[in-house]
């Protein structure tokens, strides 16, 4: 009876249209579901019969119920559940109750049920149904239920995972007997809905079993691939297209589901179906077109593509590889994808280089084509693509280098083998360019590639590549410097070649002075690993194994050190490397990272070298330790005093001392003497003894101190040995005495003793020179009396020089010594030859010019006087003016160099006294000697960094010329100073001094800061620091300086500099303040035009971020908002700037044209650049003044025509000269030559016509950009003189005067006949 009632209510509800509210639909759905659960087949048969009569009404009612949005779609999903149950019920007439419209509503109910709705959305949807009151209550219930998203699986009005699973499972069952081949729209909607379910279900992942959901979706999609639902290939294509959003999303289960379905299900079916294989092949290409442009999403797309490609068959994979190679020649988004895909293809697909196949397979290998495509992209115009290509090429090299069979093929492909001449130098030339690329990301990627190539090539690079890596260690960016250190260190780690060792030691250790702490630490670590540890291993090997004897001693020594330690030690003591080695050893020692085995290894190396020499029966007085061994031991012994044996030091000191005596007596055997090497070894040995003096036994220390004192008092040591002896003697006194007070007494005693003897030697020599007027010019024959006398004089001079030097060394370690007798002697020497009569009466010795008689003695006296001044401030105050005077007038480069060092030392100790002499010191930046210039630059740079000297006055302007110095070393130092140090320490310096630098470099005194035309002396001084001239070489040097300064400026300073150039140079010229008829004034104005037109001053919209940020891809978020704000401000400033600039250009153009100035061409070139770069800003200005627009374009066309005509004439002249320059001239050739001469007028006219066409095209292109795409009006529409053809008809109405005027103003006239 209940079933009959349900049946009647259902039929009544259907006939009534379902009612006017959702409650009626809810009752209808509930009744239907209850009726279908009955077991009475008779009731169901009657129900199907009666329902068939109202089938259309039933479908309409249930479609409306499944479209209902109330209760967050719960009513709709319940209706869908009931509808599917009806279709699956026993004996149900399926084709009667199945309708495409109802099926689409069912799919829509599933989508809506998965979309979480907020309260406002529910209320809005409910209000559209009619009954506001009830729907309002439903919305409130819905909002209340939506507050528990992560609660139970089943909530009233909430999300019911079980219900969703039941509907999806019923849907899959229905599809087994309801075929959709007749309903293509329904099939397409089904595929799209099921493909969307994984994305829509992400919000409900906390309340449903996601794996089960993916399984059900997979079954449904797999079911529709049955041929009963239509063409399998078309269905598969639709599924692939619908799964594309899942394939392109980030790492998630939904993406895994999509990849698995495509690679397993579709490809599994495609084994026997070529059409399905084609679908999968096309899917990978479709994903290429749909791949996002941002880095991270693009990476996910590349991974998805590769997963699909891996599942393809070999033939389809080859086709896709060809497709990728073609992508490398396409648009930028395709090129970047190709660059990302190539390394994955080569690493994922087997045998990329064809090493397993036959010999022909190597030549036809697909991997070689991919390598070639990747190498080509390394020179792409797009910065990002270049960087990615280099990084991915490094990845490919690293992958393929692991296979020994692929290494040879890879070397040939990259051009590192002589067997394939076509590839020689490809990658080498590429690395040379990319390592110095203007973009940081590219430089970093190139260095990464170098690192990967190191293992492939064994570290043996071309010398230019090594030089480039060394230069990269001075890059302005920290990341690039780190990458360069890593690349160069990797090469040195693998290869011990002399070139690699030398470049590494000259580039990496100096980074210990870098401002970045992490780079300093990296420098210390690699030096410890690659230098100290390598030496330690070599020393340990020597202590275990004895070297085999051989006839060639040099070869034996090299055989002892298989790791190239000899070259390493030799370069460590290089004058350009040793300062950094000292710094690194000091830093490692303070951190207690120096190991005793380093000192023991160095001792073993020296001992083994000596024993090997003696084993060959060679004279011991000709033996020298391996170069650099004593130097490094002297540096590490400071922190490892207990690791150095006293017997070792004592033995070699006696050996070196004995050898010194033998050198003095002479060598009877005539073997070449190594006295300089012995002297250097003695210095380092004494330094080592000084370092370990506190560990020495007292008695040997006292004996050694007496020995050192005796050697000092002989005054026959080398200058470097004097300092070492003096310092070692001081430390030995500390060891001999018990307390520091007694040590000071001992030091004072022997210092005064040495000073007394040295002053006597000096005084005796001065008196001897004053009394004897001998000359050193005339040479004497060997063995003559004059020769012996000159030899004696030379020895006296050497002794006097050493005595004076010893005085300075003693005063350095004991400044309070009595110098009352020494100062007058030195004063006599440095003022000798002075014309002061009072001085001559007081010091008769002053009549002799020591500068001419004894130049070494004279120079050494200045150096010692400088040391005296450092010890006595009152003395310094008296003599500093003399130092400045001698620095300015001395013609000896060595003396000038020493005086620069002295003056910079004075600047540290007596800053106020020396400040007024800074301009005289800076004059040495233009010294004719490169060593003096470099020394001056380095010392002044250090003073500037330590703030002893300020960047003011002429100092900065004089430093600018070092950027274009003749010496490459000085240029590199200057680039580093301006690019790294000043950019951080004084960021506004380049901006504040830029305009002044233009006037100074051109030696123009029209600027306010240089308006002193009456002072000829001042002009002469300024000319030394100017690059005056209008020739190409001078202009290029000045432009190089300007570009360096512009690169240091922030974007806002570039805009301000643009405005200052217009106001202080261009406006000054138009107002008459800058004389444009003067050569220097013309140079200033031409430089200003070139600067305004150069790319470095042009501020692009994206140039607001750092240099590294611009190269990389945008990250989104707040940075985009800040960048957008910055671009808006920049655009506003640009607009105001250019609108104030154009009137200045117009006025200046009229002035230059009135004077017929040659600068008109430079102005037009600059104006043309501005019209293109600031087209949006100028457009608004020119729209308001059409006449100005016409004038500018017309004048620009004339200028372009003149330029093109000049180039064409040059080409014609070259062709004519080439023809006339033939060696033999036959009569026929002579006739042809005459014909060429006759036709020269025709050629010039043709060239003129071509030039006019080029100029017109250039002008139209500029105006088209300004007008935003509008075409340029023809000349006939402009207010310009016109010339009518004599054949064109009557010329009435135009006076002859106008014709003459047009002829006068027309640049080039050709009649219509000639045209």
Q: Any descriptors?
A:
1315 residues; mainly alpha; ARM-like; coiled coil; nucleus; DNA condensation; cell cycle
Would you write up a description of this structure?
By secondary structure, the chain is an all-alpha fold. Helix content is 70%, strand content 0%. The chain has 64 helices and no strands. Helix 15 (274-290) runs antiparallel to helix 16, helix 20 packs antiparallel against helix 21 and helix 28 (517-544) packs across helix 32 (596-615). The C terminus is likely disordered.
Distance between the termini: 109 Å
- Uncertain regions spanning at least 5 consecutive residues: 118-157, 418-424, 547-554, 664-673, 774-782, 1008-1020, 1101-1119, 1216-1246, 1265-1297, 1299-1315
Please give the share of residues in helix.
Answer: over 70%
By DSSP (H or I, 4+ residues per run), the number of helices equals 64
Q: Report the structural category.
A: mainly alpha
**Secondary structure tally: strands:** 0
**How big is the Rg?**
45 Å
Biggest sheet, in brief?
A: none
Q: What is the 3D shape?
A: elongated
Strand content: under 5%
How confident is the prediction overall: mean pLDDT?
77
Question: Can you lay out the helices and strands and say which pair or pack?
Answer:
Layout: H1 2-15, H2 22-36, H3 41-53, H4 55-66, H5 74-88, H6 94-97, H7 100-114, H8 119-127, H9 132-146, H10 161-174, H11 184-200, H12 210-224, H13 232-248, H14 253-269, H15 274-290, H16 295-311, H17 314-327, H18 332-348, H19 359-363, H20 366-377, H21 383-400, H22 404-413, H23 426-434, H24 440-457, H25 463-472, H26 478-494, H27 498-507, H28 517-544, H29 553-560, H30 565-572, H31 578-590, H32 596-615, H33 629-636, H34 646-665, H35 675-691, H36 698-714, H37 719-736, H38 740-771, H39 785-813, H40 822-830, H41 837-842, H42 850-853, H43 855-871, H44 873-889, H45 893-909, H46 911-914, H47 918-922, H48 930-945, H49 955-959, H50 968-985, H51 989-992, H52 994-1001, H53 1016-1024, H54 1032-1047, H55 1051-1070, H56 1079-1093, H57 1107-1111, H58 1118-1154, H59 1160-1173, H60 1175-1184, H61 1186-1220, H62 1227-1238, H63 1240-1266, H64 1296-1305
Helix pairs in contact: 1-2, 1-3, 2-4, 2-5, 4-5, 4-7, 5-7, 5-10, 7-11, 8-9, 10-12, 11-12, 11-13, 12-14, 13-14, 13-15, 14-16, 15-16, 15-17, 16-18, 17-18, 17-20, 18-20, 18-21, 20-21, 21-24, 24-26, 25-26, 25-27, 26-27, 26-28, 27-30, 28-31, 28-32, 32-33, 33-35, 34-35, 35-37, 36-37, 37-38, ...
């Amino acid at each position: 009876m209940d079933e009959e009632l349900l049946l009647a209510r259902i039929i009544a509800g259907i006939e009534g249209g379902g009612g006017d509210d959702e409650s009626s639909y809810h009752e209808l759905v509930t009744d239907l579901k209850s009726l279908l659960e009955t077991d009475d087949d008779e009731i169901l048969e009657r129900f199907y019969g009666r329902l068939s009569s109202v089938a259309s009404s039933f479908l309409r009612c249930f479609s409306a119920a499944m479209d209902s949005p109330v209760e967050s779609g719960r009513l709709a999903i319940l209706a869908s559940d009931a509808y599917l149950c009806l279709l699956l019920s026993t004996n149900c007439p399926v084709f009667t109750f199945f309708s495409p419209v109802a099926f689409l509503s069912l799919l829509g109910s599933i989508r809506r049920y998965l979309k979480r709705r907020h309260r406002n959305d529910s209320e809005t949807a409910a209000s559209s149904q009619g009954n506001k009151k009830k729907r309002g209550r439903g919305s409130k219930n819905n909002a209340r239920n939506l507050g528990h998203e992560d609660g139970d699986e089943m909530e009233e009005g909430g999300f019911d995972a079980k219900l969703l699973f039941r509907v999806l499972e019923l849907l899959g069952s229905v599809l087994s007997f309801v075929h959709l081949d007749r309903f293509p729209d329904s099939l397409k909607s089904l595929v799209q809905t099921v493909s969307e379910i994984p994305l829509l279900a992400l919000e409900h992942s906390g309340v449903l079993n996601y794996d089960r959901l993916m399984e059900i979706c997979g079954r449904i999609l797999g079911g529709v691939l049955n041929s009963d639902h239509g063409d399998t290939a078309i269905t598969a294509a639709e599924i692939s297209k619908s799964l594309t959003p899942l394939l392109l999303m980030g790492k998630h289960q939904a993406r895994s589901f999509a990849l698995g379905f495509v690679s397993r299900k579709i490809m599994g079916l495609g084994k026997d179906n070529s059409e399905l294989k084609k679908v999968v092949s096309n899917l990978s290409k479709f994903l290429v077109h749909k791949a996002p442009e941002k880095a991270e999403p693009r990476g996910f797309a590349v991974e998805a593509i590769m997963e699909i490609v891996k599942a393809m068959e070999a033939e389809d994979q080859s086709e896709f590889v060809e497709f990728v190679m073609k992508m490398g020649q396409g648009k930028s988004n395709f090129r970047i994808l190709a660059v990302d895909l190539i390394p994955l293809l080569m690493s994922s697909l087997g045998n990329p280089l064809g090493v397993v196949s036959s010999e022909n397979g190597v030549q036809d290998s697909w991997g070689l084509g991919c390598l070639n495509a990747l190498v080509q992209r390394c020179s792409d115009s797009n910065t990002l693509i270049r960087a990615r290509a280099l990084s991915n090429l490094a990845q490919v090299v690293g992958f393929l280098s692991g296979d020994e069979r692929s290494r040879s093929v890879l070397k040939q492909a990259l051009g590192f083998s002589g067997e394939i001449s076509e590839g020689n130098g490809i990658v080498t030339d590429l690395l040379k360019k990319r390592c110095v690329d203007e973009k940081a990301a590219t430089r970093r990627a190139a260095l990464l590639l170098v690192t990967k190539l190191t293992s492939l090539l064994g570290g043996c690079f071309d010398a230019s590549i090594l030089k480039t890596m060394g230069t990269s260690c001075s890059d302005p960016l920290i990341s690039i410097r780190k990458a360069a250190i890593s690349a160069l260190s990797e090469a040195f780690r693998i290869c011990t070649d002399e070139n690699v060792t030398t470049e590494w030691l000259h580039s990496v250790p100096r980074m210990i002075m870098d401002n970045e702490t992490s780079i300093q630490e990296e420098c210390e670590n690699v030096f410890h690993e690659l230098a100290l540890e390598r030496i330690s291993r070599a020393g340990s090997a020597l202590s275990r194994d004895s070297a085999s004897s051989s006839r060639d001693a040099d070869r034996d020594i090299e055989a002892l050190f298989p790791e190239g330690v000899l070259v390493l030690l030799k370069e460590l003591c290089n004058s350009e490397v040793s300062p950094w080695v000292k710094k690194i050893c000091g830093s490692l020692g303070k951190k207690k990272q120096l190991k005793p085995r380093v000192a023991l290894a160095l001792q073993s190396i020296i001992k083994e070298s000596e024993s090997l020499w003696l084993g060959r029966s060679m004279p011991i007085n000709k033996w020298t330790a391996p170069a650099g061994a004593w130097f490094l031991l002297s540096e590490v012994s400071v922190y490892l005093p207990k690791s150095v044996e006293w017997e070792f030091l004592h033995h070699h000191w006696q050996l070196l001392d004995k050898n010194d005596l033998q050198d003095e007596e002479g060598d009877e055997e005539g073997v070449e003497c190594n006295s300089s090497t012995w002297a250097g070894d003695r210095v380092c040995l004494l330094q080592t003894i000084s370092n370990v003096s506190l560990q020495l036994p007292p008695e040997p220390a006292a004996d050694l101190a007496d020995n050192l004192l005796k050697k000092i008092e002989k005054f026959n040591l080398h200058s470097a040995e004097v300092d070492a002896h003096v310092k070692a003697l001081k430390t030995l006194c500390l060891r001999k005495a018990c307390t520091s007070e007694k040590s000071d007494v001992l030091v004072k005693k022997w210092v005064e003793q040495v000073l007394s003897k040295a002053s006597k030697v000096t005084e005796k020599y001065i008196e001897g020179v004053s009394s004897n007027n001998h000359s050193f010019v005339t040479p004497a024959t060997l063995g003559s009396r004059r020769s012996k006398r000159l030899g004696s004089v030379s020895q006296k001079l050497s002794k006097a020089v050493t005595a004076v030097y010893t005085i300075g060394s003693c005063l350095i370690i004991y400044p309070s010594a009595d110098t009352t007798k020494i100062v007058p002697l030195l004063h006599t020497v440095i003022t000798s030859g002075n014309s002061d009569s009072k001085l001559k009466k007081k010091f008769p010795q002053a009549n002799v010019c020591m500068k001419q008689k004894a130049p070494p003695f004279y120079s050494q006296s200045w150096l010692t006087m400088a040391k005296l001044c450092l010890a006595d401030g009152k003395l310094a105050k008296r003599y500093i003016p003399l130092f400045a005077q001698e620095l300015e007038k001395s013609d000896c480069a060595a003396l000038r160099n020493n005086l620069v060092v002295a003056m910079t030392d004075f600047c540290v100790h007596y800053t106020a006294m020396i400040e007024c002499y800074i301009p005289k010191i800076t004059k040495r930046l233009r010294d004719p000697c490169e060593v003096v210039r470099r020394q001056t630059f380095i010392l002044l740079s250090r003073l500037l960094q330590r703030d002893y000297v300020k960047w003011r006055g002429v100092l900065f302007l004089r430093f600018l010329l070092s950027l274009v110095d003749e010496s490459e070393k000085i240029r590199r130092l200057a680039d580093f100073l301006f690019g790294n140090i000043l950019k951080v320490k004084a960021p506004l310096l380049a901006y504040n001094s830029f305009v002044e630098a233009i006037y100074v470099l051109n030696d123009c005194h029209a600027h306010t800061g240089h308006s002193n035309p009456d002072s000829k002396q001042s002009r002469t001084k300024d000319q030394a620091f100017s690059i005056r001239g209008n020739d190409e070489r001078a202009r290029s040097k000045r432009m190089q300086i300007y570009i360096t300064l512009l690169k240091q400026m922030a974007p806002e300073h570039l805009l301000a500099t643009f405005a200052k150039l217009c106001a202080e140079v261009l406006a000054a010229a138009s107002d008459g303040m800058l004389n444009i008829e003067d050569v220097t004034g013309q140079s200033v104005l031409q430089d200003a035009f070139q600067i305004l037109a150069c790319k470095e001053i042009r501020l692009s919209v994206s140039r607001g971020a750092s240099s590294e940020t611009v190269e990389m891809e945008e990250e989104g978020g707040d940075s985009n908002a800040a960048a957008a704000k910055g671009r808006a401000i920049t655009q506003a400033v640009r607009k105001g700037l250019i609108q104030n600039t154009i009137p200045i250009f117009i006025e200046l153009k009229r002035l230059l044209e009135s004077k017929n100035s040659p600068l008109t061409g430079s102005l037009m070139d600059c104006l043309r650049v501005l019209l293109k770069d600031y087209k949006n800003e100028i457009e608004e200005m020119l729209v308001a003044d059409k006449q100005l627009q016409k004038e500018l374009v017309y004048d620009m066309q004339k200028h372009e025509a003149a330029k093109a005509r000049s180039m064409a004439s040059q080409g014609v002249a070259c062709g004519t000269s080439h023809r006339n320059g033939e060696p033999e001239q036959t009569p026929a050739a002579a006739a042809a030559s005459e014909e060429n001469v006759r036709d020269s007028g025709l050629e010039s006219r043709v060239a003129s016509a071509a030039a006019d066409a080029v100029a017109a095209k250039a002008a139209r292109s500029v105006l088209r950009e300004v007008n935003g795409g509008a075409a340029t009006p023809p000349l006939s529409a402009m207010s310009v003189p016109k010339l009518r053809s004599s054949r064109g008809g009557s010329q009435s109405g135009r006076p002859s005067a106008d014709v003459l005027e047009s002829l006068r103003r027309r640049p080039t006239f050709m009649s219509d006949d000639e045209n």
